[in-house]
Design goal:
alpha/beta, Isopropylmalate Dehydrogenase, 2 domains, 10-stranded mixed β-sheet, 14 strands, 21% strand, globular, binds nicotinamide-adenine-dinucleotide
């Protein structure tokens, strides 16, 4: 029996997570996977009920589970709180507490959505890449950090520290090479070796780690060039491996290749349970209207089956079902296209995916 912690969160979180749980239940039944779901509170919902964005019971539930399905957190009613007590802190704390150092964002453009991307068809048709971002090191966590008096006595200075250790680079590089082994066997490591000492070590360690994976073709690219190549020729990429800050920026850029933010799943992996969530936020502007696109969360559920439960056939069946539903022309408002598409709501989109999984 696999135990899944379900953390719907705020805004559209509960709506999209409900559909993903329906889909997991259906895929579990079809593929004979016993699943047990237990819900926990997180984010603004947890602040309102327990006074903190990540209550200890929620953290214990996550630690005791095989995987975590997460919706989204945040909303205008909590925007007045200090940064370290806001809903968004809930997900940052979870990543830190569970040591989720590897963030995977597959960027796949479904053939039927080519026209939903702002880029030209001839550039993006067939895009299928994996952004792999180191999530717990680098500039966002390095010490010293803060605003201190400037040494010349004139005002202040803001300090952040960019640190990477051999161990941190090696473990994320291994995840990258392992993913590439299951894909098209190419890995592009992104750095800024011409300027940064941390990048010099990054490139050296990635190159050394590559010797453990002789089947994988490795190349290195400077981050500024990568940001250009992602738009110029995105199909050249298979796995893109990079550090925390570069990954933060490049993964949002790459997300636009796939059209809508409502289509993009993610996984954050460490040595314990993995966390699966759509890349979008709590979308308070459309919450409670049955219009939010649940496919990013449904595709995150497929990643959960693949990466945490090692159920590749069930994961692929969900992805194929999503593809068939889109090919049949069903669209939530964010991916609506003029012409022959049929507009559906959140729950109906979930039902269509379920029906398609059952028919297989
Ligand atoms: P957002 O991703 O919530 O929404 C941006 C825009 O995209 C909105 O117009 C929204 O309606 C639309 N959108 C988002 N997801 C959609 C979907 N599945 N289907 C259709 N349309 C969709 O980003 P935001 O508005 O900047 O942030 C809203 C709140 O979410 C903030 O409080 C922010 O801090 C929080 N947030 C949370 C997470 C997280 O939980 N991991 C991530 C990002 C933002």
């Amino acid at each position: 029996m696999a135990k899944i912690a379900v953390l719907p969160g705020d805004g559209v979180g509960p709506e999209v997570v409900r559909e993903a749980v329906k889909v997991l239940t259906t895929a579990g039944a079809r593929f004979g996977i016993a699943l047990e779901f237990e819900e926990g509170i997180v984010g603004g919902a947890a602040i309102d009920r327990a006074g903190t964005p990540l209550p200890p019971e929620t953290l214990s539930l996550c630690r005791a589970s095989d995987a975590i399905l997460f919706g989204a957190v945040g909303g205008p009613m909590w925007d007045g709180l200090p940064v370290n007590r806001r809903p968004e802190r809930g997900v940052l704390l979870l990543r830190k507490e569970l040591g989720l150092y590897a963030n995977l964002r597959p960027i796949r453009l479904f053939a039927s959505l080519v026209d939903a991307s702002p880029l030209k068809r001839e550039i993006i048709e067939g895009v299928d890449l994996m952004m792999l971002r180191e999530l717990t090191g680098g500039l966002y966590f390095g010490e010293p950090k803060g605003i201190i008096p400037a040494p010349d006595g004139k005002g202040e200075q803001g300090v952040d520290t960019l640190i990477y250790t051999t161990h941190e680079i090696e473990r994320i590089a291994r995840v990258g090479f392992q993913i590439a082994t299951q894909r098209r066997k190419r890995l592009t490591s992104v750095d800024k070796v011409n300027v940064l000492a941390s990048s010099e070590l990054w490139r050296r360690v990635v190159t050394e780690t590559a010797t453990e994976f002789p089947d994988i073709e490795l190349d290195h690219m400077l981050v500024d060039n990568c940001s250009m190549q992602l738009i110029r020729d995105p199909r050249r990429f298979d796995v893109v491996l990079t550090e925390n800050t570069f990954g933060d920026i490049l993964s949002d850029e790459a997300a636009m290749l796939a059209g809508s933010i409502g289509m993009l799943p993610s996984a954050s992996l460490g040595d314990g349970p993995g966390l699966y969530e759509p890349i979008h936020g709590s979308a308070p502007d459309i919450a409670g209207q049955d219009t939010v696109n649940p496919l990013a969360t449904i595709l995150s559920a497929a990643m959960l089956l693949r990466h945490s439960l090692h159920q590749e056939a069930a994961a692929a069946a969900i992805e194929a079902a999503v593809s068939r539903v889109l090919e049949a022309g069903y669209r939530t408002p964010d991916i609506r296209q003029p012409g022959r598409t049929v507009l559906v709501g959140t729950a109906q989109m979930g039902d269509l995916v379920i029906e398609s999984i059952r028919k297989g």
